[in-house]
Each structure stands twice: as C-alpha cells, then as structure tokens.
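This part of the workshop introduces the protein records we will be handling. An example says more than a description, so a record of this kind follows:
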Amino acid sequence: MINVWKRLWIESPIGKVVDNTTIVFNIQTNSMYADIRIPKSRSLRLNNLTLLSDYTWDELMELALQKSFAGYSHANNTDWICFWDRKIDYQPFTGSFDIGHVDTYSSAPLMIEEGVDGDDYREVWKPLLPTSGLCEKYSKVSFVSLVLSKEVVKGKINSNSKGFMVINCDTFIYQIDRRNIKLPQSDSLLDLIHSQKYSRKQVEDILDNYISHYGVKSSDNGDWIVLHSTFPYSENKKLEGTFKMILDNNIVIQTIPEKDTVLYWNVQAMTYNPFF
C-alpha cells in the first residue's frame, strides 16, 4: 500500500456512485498515512481571502464540508483488513472506526477499498507511483514519516499542537491540529455546528486551528509547494518555513521566522532525505 493514492470515486452503497468530484489524496508509508478531501464545489473566491473573518457564514460552512485526517495504518497481511487509526481529524468522531478491506490485486493497478461488518461502501483509488511504490526519481521506495514532537511559538510551547507530515517521492501531506477542545461526537462537522449552535467565533476557531496541505517539492528550487489545502488561500504557495534534518537526533526542525515559530518533528521512518 506504500504509494500516493488519488481517489477516483466512492460508492455507498456498493454499486451506487455517490461522489466522483471530491479531490481526495491519500499518502501511505510503511506505517503512517495522511488523507485530505476537498470538494471541487468549494468557491474559488475563497482562494483570494486571507482571513476567515472575510468569509460569509455560508462560505465558512463550505469549509466545514472538507475532510482530512492522519495517523497510523495497521494491516492484517492475511486477509488485508486495514485499520486506519486517526490520531488527528478535521471532522468529529462519528462513532465508527475507519476499518476496511483493501484489494490491490484484482483490479491492479487500482486499489479497491470496501467496508466490513456491514459498512456498505467501496472506494476506488488510483496510484500515482508504480504499484511497487518505487519512486523512479530516486530509483527506490522513497518515503518519510514525521510526527510533531512540539511547536514553540514566541518562546512558549503550544501544548495543543499535534501533527503529521507524510512524504512519498517528494509528494507530501502536512497536517497540524492546534484545537484546544475535542470536538463532540457527531455525524459531521456541519451537523455539529448546527446542533451545538456554535457562534461564528467558535466556528472560526475550529476551522482556523486545523491545517492540512497536499503538495509537491519543486524540482526547480526545492520549495514545498501547496497544491490543495483546507486553507484555500494557501494553495499554489510555498509551505511555510524552512526544514532542516538533524541526523544525530533523528528530528526535522521547521522554522517559520515571520511567525516566531519553530516545529520539531520526530522521524518515525525514513528511506531517503528530502530535506537538503
């Protein structure tokens, strides 16, 4: 399953396509994964607004439809039942865990994911790398799994910050959850906002404190370029900060001088070093 995956469609129930327009990418390494899902219907006007305070209420609700999550993947190699353990999630917990059967053989090179235990869905995924996971640019399987150890803002540790950065063949998903509350269980963030009657400030705080980017490392200058994001105004821009690999300590340090912020990422797995 090590690859960069683009979802083509989802069926729910199986046989009925319910979504083939959402932009969905999933990056898998040997044990870590990250996923981002952006509706194509999201207004392009939002890409020109730098602050959530500039959004209308309806536009904030558009952002509430986005999905993104990251954590650890566990697979039973006998029958390929997979459990994606979401450690951070843009959406609230629905009450159902992310478990499915994965088939990378019968429809190769496509990957077919189907629900188990009565969860009636099918997702069809296309690999963006060869099915072996080989990165032709480096002539080997090339991935990095990072988990955020700490974030220091203006000299103080932000104890709320949790994050994952998953890289495969210079394609990345970068996610940080800075929310200071745990969202109550609900079918969706949109439902939660309506049922809890959250104020505009509460909604802005929920949306503003979870960031998820998908992008690529530029072959021209080495910049990490954001292509899709839960923050529309971040798209087609450089990922904030610079990255430095400290090999002796097995950490990556991300420095954002304009925000007086330093993030320390622990290396969970690394088969190549893209931070040079």
